[in-house]
Amino acid sequence: MSNITLGIIGGGQLGSMLAIAAKKLGIKIIIFCDDLEAPAQNFCDEFIGAKYDDKEKINEFVNKVDIVTYEFENIPYETLNDINKLKPVLPKPSVNRLIQHRLAEKDFVNKLNIRTTRYVSVENQSDIDVLEDFLPGIIKTTTLGYDGKGQHPVSTSEELKNLKLDLSRGYILEKLVKLKKEISIIITRFSNNKYEIYEPIENTHEDQILKHSKIPADINEKIFNQSKDWAILIAEELKYVGTLCVEFFIDRNDNLYVNEIAPRVHNSGHLTINAFNVSQFENHIRAVCELEQIPLKKLSNAKMINLLGDQISNYRNSPKLKDNEFFFDYLKKEIKDKRKMGHITILE
Ligand code: ADP
Ligand code: MG
Questions:
Q1: Is 19 exposed, middle or buried (0-12, 13-18, 19+ CB in 10 A)?
Q2: What is the rounded end-to-end Cα distance, in angstroms, of the chain?
Q3: Predicted confidence (pLDDT) per residue in 159-203, tens digit
Q4: Model confidence pLDDT, tens digit, residues 249-281
């Protein structure tokens, strides 16, 4: 048992699962979140609800904790940087600043000689006429997107013009990859340069939102090894501490691309709670709190199904689960269409 108090910024389901893992390790958790209804308050030792630029509340939070981490990437860089002057923030704020901007993130990945989709920054209307090469594509806001929010598939420049986007917000246009499959790699890097890496996870999206994840991924050996090598290279280059996820595309010719990096625990890794001896959440806590590193062992193959919107209702009312099925309710009060409300993991 330790007497560390860990602060987590963000109080969604990822914060909840981090708090549950921390409790098991005897670590006290204080959550800071701008949503007063945040579900993670059900699982932490103390909850502070305030805006991310509320300096007084941030100070109160920082004074109470030994180390700070975060469960989502869209936290103002200034906030993380200010906190880091007083208490260590892990992963480093500079990592978060790089990855929260889609252009900076892709430039970084390409510099490592790792393939990404083809992309271009779209800054004004006159750019649109010369973008034929990147169509059909997906236009995305460069910052603040998640679960397909801020994204529009476009086939022609006419369509793109008709969207009448406020381009001053910053947009990136990505060429559409003809997808065969999507996979992700979850890796936890420790401050002594060692790491634990999970096997590739195969992911299915519907309307740009993750629906299913499973292990083992049905992929060839080359992609199995390349995806792991690239995730290790990215974690090493960032000198990352904590759990990180790399999302990949595989096209119809079996080319591998990095789609994006999440500097945090990830939805596709929920199955690690039941399928491995140490989950992505526990590994994150172990890495940022400098606890012992435990070699990963797979206990079972598994499939995870996200419960979106009112798909949660049946399970909430009468969860008839078999011995190999595990239901997680994120305890979000309001059911909204396509909102991630919970998940089921099935060990197989
Ligand atoms: P988010 O930050 O919302 O997760 P992503 O860039 O990962 O955004 O996009 C969400 C999903 O949309 C991807 O997992 C994929 O299914 C689809 N998608 C996004 N960009 C492309 C692309 N360039 N080609 C093909 N599919 C894409
Ligand atoms: Mg994504």
A1: buried
A2: 33
A3: 988 888 888 889 999 999 999 999 999 999 999 889 999 999 999
A4: 999 999 999 999 999 999 999 999 999 999 999
What's the pTM value of the predicted model, to 2 decimals? 0.96
Name the β-bridge partners of 152. Answer: 139
| Residue closest by Cα to atom 13 of ligand 1 | 208
- State the Cα angle at 208 between 168 and 98, rounded to 5°: 50
Reduce the DSSP state of residue 75 to 3 states and report it: coil
Coil, strand, or helix at residue 186?
strand
Distance from Cα 259 to the centre of ligand 1, integer Å: 7
* Mutate-to-test residue for ligand 1 from 105, 151, 259, 266, highest number of ligand atoms within 8 A of CB: 259
The predicted model gives 237-250 an average pLDDT of 98
Distance CA 7, CA 254 (A): 42
d(CA 37, CA 31): 12
Contacts of 140 (CB under 8 A, 6+ apart): 102, 150, 151, 171, 172, 173, 174
- Phi then psi dihedrals of residue 132, to 5 deg: -45, -40
Q: Cα 64 to chain center, whole Å?
A: 26
CA distances to 188, 222, 255, 276, 282 from 296, rounded to whole Å, are: 11, 22, 28, 7, 11
Residue 1 banded pLDDT, cuts 50, 70, 90:
low
What letter would DSSP give residue 169?
Answer: G
Name which of 117, 161, 140, 96 is nearest 256 in CA terms.
Answer: 117
CA of 218 to the centre of ligand 2 (A): 20
What amino acid occupies position 214? K
Torsion-angle region of residue 339: left (phi > 0), alpha (psi -120 to 50) or beta?
A: beta
